[in-house]
Every structure is written in structure tokens, then in C-alpha cells.
Amino acid sequence: MNCDRFRKQLSEFGALDVPGDALAHLGTCAGCAVAYQRQRKLETGLKQLAAAQAEWSAPAYVEAALLERFRSESPRPAPPAPAPQLPFLFRFRIPALLAAGALAAALALLVIARAPQSAHIPEKAVSQVAETEDDSAVDNGFIMLPYFANSGEVANTSEDDVVRVVMPRSALVSLGVPVTDDSTSGSVEAELLLGQGGVPQAVRVLE
Amino acid sequence: MTSADWDNQLLVRMRSGEEAAFVELYRKLQPSIYRFALHMTGSRSVAEDVTQETFLALIGDDFGYLPERGTLAGYLFGVARKLVLRYLERMQNGPERGFDSAESGRQERTPAASFSDPVAGLIEREGLEELRRAVVSLPRRYREVVVLCDLQEIDYADAASLLGCPVGTVRSRLHRARALLLDKLQRREPRYRVRSLTAAGSLI
Q1: Residue A44 contacts B, CB cutoff 8 Å
Q2: What is the widest separation between alpha-carbon atoms in chain B?
């Protein structure tokens, strides 16, 4: 290997990485050996410099300033909207009021279910009942109950005063409703026309 | 997952407002940027400014990084390099001075290798500070390759990518830079060479 080739390899690889066969030239050329040693020392010094500075980094206040900027500029996920705050008493009263309302509604339903229906009847039905008070049967199928037919009083009623009931067929007998011999057992679905105070005035068998 | 992929994930999380992702990204990437700026400018305050400006760009809305065109680290380095070059242009000929940083004093305590020739003796006696001064005084294009390849220990291919030049150019610049460094070290402090040779009994 001549000097030119050695210098070229020294340039290409650096003194620390020059190929081994190139190093053989150093024993035959004092000039190249000096150049090689000088460059080797320089590269070693640079490596030491790199190692000594490997831990260098920007001071903490740079990070702090950047963080502050980041917090002010970065998009933030929107926090969930807080529920509107009710006054203190309402926060506890509303559930209690709801519970009380539910209880009251349940009691009202119970009372309505048990209480006799208030007296209302369609005008048409009333007139028909009045016109046919001599008969026990009316056009719309209602049969005047005996005790009411005899009293001759017809209350103003409406459709709301017709209630549907299931009653023993035998009970129809006690109400004076005609039944056949073979149909006295079992129950029957019927509608009662109620007067004031919930007193039945007429009955209509639906079957 | 590669380091570059992880950086991209951190960037996405950071963009969604996750502060921890930004902190991790910053702490991972800022040392090399800071050191590059410090070696290139010789000024700690400028290096801090460059680091801060680089990451402010990362925070900003107009950050133009595209993962398909390179790594995030490379992109940030490119931002930092532009800032450094802008500073050097303002300074015209660049700094002809040593480091103004506290690291200079700290560096003096670093043990140097034992050298027997004049250059090695110079490094040994003056410490690495003189070598650092010599690096900072190199022309910018040579300083860059020394900082990247010798001080940051980036391989030639990556350095070529960062600098936007062929690998051969990096090699030739590095060779030239080292020659300039040797020349500077010998010319700048001839008294050390004389002392060293005297101590070896070569002159007397």
C-alpha cells in the first residue's frame, strides 16, 4: 500500500476505523504514521468530548416554560357539564315529594276502585229509561231493576255511570232479570247503570 | 415498535392534550437538540432559546410534520438547525469564542487521556475546553458534521439525511473538518507544543 492509498483510507474511515491492512503501511512510512497518530488522538479527544457532554440538556426552566405554554394552548377535553345545582332543601325534598305523590296516586286508585261510581249516564239512556219506566226493559238493553222501576225516579246520569261487572248468573234472579232454566249456573258479564250515590238502576247482560 | 413509531404515538397523544405525552417527548428529544445548538453556537442562552423555539413549534398549530416523510426527531432537528443557522447568519461570521455556559467549568474536571504528541498534550493540558473551542470556531458546514458525527455520534447516512446532502459529502466534510481542527489546535497554542517537546527533551 502506498501513501496515497493509505491517506485515502484514513480519510474515508477515520483513524479509529481504518482497516487493518492499511495499518501495515505505517511501519514503512514515518510521515503517514505521524499523520495517523495525530488524527487518532484527535478522534479520541472528540469521543471524550462527546462522552463528557452526553448528559448535557436544557435546564429545567425551559421545560417549565414550555409546559406552561402547552397548558395554555393545548386542546383540553371538555369536562362534563355539571348538573344544575338545586337549592339545598329541594335536593332532599324532590325524592320525598315523588314518593309521596306515588303513594297518594296508589291510594286514590284504591279508593276509586272500591268506591261506587258517581252518578252519570248518557242523556240518551236517561231519556229512554224515563220514557219506558212502565217497562222493565229499555231500548239499549238495560233492564230496570225492580226496586228502582217502582220508585219512578230517574237520575241524571252519563256514560261514566255504566260499570261493567262479572256476577253470578244466579244473582240475576234476585235482581228480577229473567233467566232460563239451563243457564242459572256460572257467572255472567253485565253492565250496571248507576244512579246517584252509586245505586244501580238498571242492568244489561252482555252475553 | 420502533423509537420513531413511539414518538409518533406520543405526538398524537400530545395533540389530544395529554401533558404527560408532551413531557415524555420533550425529555427524550431535547438533549440532542440542545447539545447541537450549544456546539453550533457556543452559547448556552442561544441553545436554550433554540430548544424552546423548536418545541414551541411542536406545540403550535402549524407544525408541519408528516410521518411518511421522516422521523419526528429528524424533523425537530431540522427546525432546530434552521433556528441555529438563522442565529449564525445574524452573527455573520459565527462565534469565535468559547462556550459561555456553566458546562465549561464542569468540563474541566473531565479526565483527559494521556497523550504523548503535541496535539495530545495540548488536549491533555488544556482539557477538552480547547478542543471544544476549536470545534466552535470551524466554518459552519464543517462544524455541523463534526457536531453530528463526532459529538452526537450520528452515523453518516443519518447525518446526510439531516443535512440534506449525499453521504460522500458528509465524509469529505468530516475529513476536512478534522484536518482543520488539527491545524487550529497546533496554530492556536504553539507554546504548548514547545513545552511538550521540551519536556520530552526533543528541543534541548
Answers
A1: yes
A2: 73
